[in-house]
Specification:
This protein has 98 residues and is an all-alpha fold. The protein has one domain. The chain has four helices and no strands. Helix 1 packs antiparallel against helix 2, helix 1 packs parallel to helix 3 and helix 2 crosses helix 3. The protein is flat and about 45 Å long.
């Protein structure tokens, strides 16, 4: 069996790993975020950036507090932040900003 295709701790042999799936999902959500920016303008940009930064920062903080080795893959946290940003109402944010 090819060792490069196996994810550690599993017996499943597949080229699609969790990290690769999260990377593809993040880039797919970036396309949706671009559409949201066209529809809502700067409010959508602010929401996406703040949500992704908070998700990545809280993930890093949890790893610091748990005293475990920090994993370098941040795509899972970034996907979580993108989902939060894209599922919230940008129209409400526009009304509060202006």
């Amino acid at each position: 069996m090819e060792e490069g295709l196996r994810e550690k701790g599993t017996s499943v042999l597949a080229p699609m790993t969790k990290n690769l799936l999260m990377k593809y999902t993040f880039f797919s959500l970036c396309i949706l975020a671009a559409v949201a920016v066209l529809a809502f303008g700067m409010a959508a940009v602010i929401m996406v950036v703040v949500s992704v930064v908070v998700a990545l920062g809280s993930d890093y903080l949890i790893f610091l507090l748990s005293k475990r080795r920090f994993r370098r893959d941040g795509y899972s946290s970034a996907v979580c932040g993108m989902i939060v940003a894209l599922s919230s109402s940008s129209g409400m944010l526009i009304n509060t900003l202006w």
